[in-house]
């Protein structure tokens, strides 16, 4: 067996299962889950119809490079969404089987783990809290992870000035997530300026995870993306890869349809890796994805639903928890300290007494530099329909009030 597998930790939802294993929720109370970030809004009819109309494609092997119409539709979307002068559909975009697969595989492509000193492996920098794929990708590429804690005083941005010079010298890849999971924070242009300067100095690749980019609350202010920031700062796409997906944007997580875009030299190597990896997107879903990327009406309708939920639920929960509307994404990152419970105690008792599931923040972070920045928080995924989210929020409020919060 690959010994690096022994370095992997249990996934957050496995930790949640263990936390709940001896708990029987109160009888007669319908379960409501805010635990998993899986979109629950209906898949738009135009995408369902496109899948059905494309079923004849199941008789063909899909190309890893993706079809020309798909690459062109993605390039056109990226160009329009991020106000770019041009995007080459042949060299600067690549369809992938969901951003999760690509986030993992990218590390296997760009990390050079050859070293004369086994005690000094390459470094992959990750935000903390973080999406656990970043950690697993680093470890299985033979690298070591270094966590940069999110700072509530900086709107949960990472303070890269705290990273020692010897860590930067070994860094080969930096994962960023904007809008962030779990905080919903969006990187500013100044954040990008700092990170680009560090990349120029230390020659590392930036992987910008932007899978939540189309869930936001002001139609006039879509979140800034990495490629857009590069343009605004007068740069090209050197050492920069952004990753996106239809899963959240179009409510089709089962299609596993996403893309990567950016530095053409990295994408050339990534295509070679993925050709052997065998993770080409189904021809059926490639054809349906063309339809999805070309339509914005269903995306605006989707955002309107999230806006309604967040505007209703956030003030309800703010009466009993320290929580506010995030910059973007579909999570509330709620501080539960005023209840007198830890994040795991809060989640366990809420599940037992009210059959509502939330995810403890400590499960989404690691102890680094003397602290676990997820402790005292819970992640609340407002993915269900409005009525269910409101009912779940009502139960949380009632639960907190029984604690005197």
TrEMBL record:
Show the CDD domains listed in the entry: AAT_like
Question: Which InterPro entries does this one have?
Answer: Aminotransferase_I/II_large, DapC_beta/gammaproteobac, LL-DAP_aminotransferase, PyrdxlP-dep_Trfase, PyrdxlP-dep_Trfase_major, PyrdxlP-dep_Trfase_small
Which GO molecular function, any one, fits this protein according to its record? Answer: succinyldiaminopimelate transaminase activity
KW Nuclease (keyword) present: no
- Which keywords appear in this protein's UniProt record, sorted alphabetically? Aminotransferase, Transferase
Gene Ontology biological process terms in this record:
lysine biosynthetic process via diaminopimelate
Cofactor(s) required, per the database record: pyridoxal 5'-phosphate
**Which SUPFAM superfamilies does this entry report, sorted A to Z?**
PLP-dependent transferases
Q: Where does the Aminotransferase class I/classII large domain start and stop, copy by copy?
A: 31-388
The protein's Enzyme Commission number: 2.6.1.17
**Which is an annotated Pfam family here?**
Aminotran_1_2
Alphabetical list of NCBIfam families matching this protein = DapC_gpp
The protein depicted here goes by the name N-succinyl-L,L-diaminopimelate aminotransferase alternative
Which source organism does the UniProt entry give? Candidatus Burkholderia verschuerenii
């Amino acid at each position: 067996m690959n010994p690096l597998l022994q370095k992997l930790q249990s996934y957050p939802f496995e930790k949640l299962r263990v936390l709940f294993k001896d708990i029987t929720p109160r009888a007669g109370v319908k379960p409501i889950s805010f635990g998993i970030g899986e979109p629950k809004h209906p898949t738009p009819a135009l995408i369902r119809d496109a899948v059905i109309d494309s079923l004849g494609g199941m008789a063909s092997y899909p190309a890893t490079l993706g079809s020309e119409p798909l690459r062109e539709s993605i390039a056109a979307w990226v160009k329009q969404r991020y106000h770019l002068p041009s995007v080459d559909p042949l060299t600067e975009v690549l369809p992938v089987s969901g951003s999760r697969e690509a986030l993992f595989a990218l590390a296997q492509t760009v990390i050079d783990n050859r070293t004369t000193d086994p005690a000094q492996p390459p470094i992959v920098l990750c935000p903390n809290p973080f999406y656990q794929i970043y950690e697993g990708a680093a470890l299985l590429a033979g690298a070591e992870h270094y966590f940069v804690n999110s700072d509530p005083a900086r709107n949960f941005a990472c303070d890269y000035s705290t990273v020692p010079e010897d860590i930067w010298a070994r860094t080969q890849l930096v994962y960023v997530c904007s809008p962030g999971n779990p905080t919903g924070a969006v990187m500013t242009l100044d954040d990008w300026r700092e990170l680009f300067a560090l990349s120029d100095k230390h020659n590392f690749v930036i992987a910008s995870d932007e899978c939540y980019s189309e869930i936001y609350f002001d139609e006039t202010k879509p979140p800034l993306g990495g490629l857009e920031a590069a343009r605004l700062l007068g740069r090209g796409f050197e050492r920069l890869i952004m990753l996106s997906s239809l899963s959240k944007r179009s409510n089709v997580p089962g299609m596993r349809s996403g893309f990567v875009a950016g530095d053409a030299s990295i994408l050339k190597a990534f295509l070679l890796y993925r050709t052997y990896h065998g993770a080409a997107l189904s021809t059926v879903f490639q054809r349906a994805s063309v339809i999805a990327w070309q339509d914005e009406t269903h995306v605006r309708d989707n955002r309107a639903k999230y806006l309604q939920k967040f505007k209703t639920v956030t003030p309800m929960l703010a009466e009993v928890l320290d929580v506010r509307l995030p910059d973007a994404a579909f999570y509330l990152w709620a501080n539960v300290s005023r209840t007198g419970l830890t994040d795991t105690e809060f989640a366990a008792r809420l599940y037992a007494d009210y059959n509502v599931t939330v995810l403890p923040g400590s499960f989404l972070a690691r102890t680094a530099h003397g602290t676990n920045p997820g402790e005292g928080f819970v992640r609340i995924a407002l993915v269900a329909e409005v009525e269910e989210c409101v009912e779940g929020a009502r139960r949380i409020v009632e639960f907190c009030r029984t604690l005197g919060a």
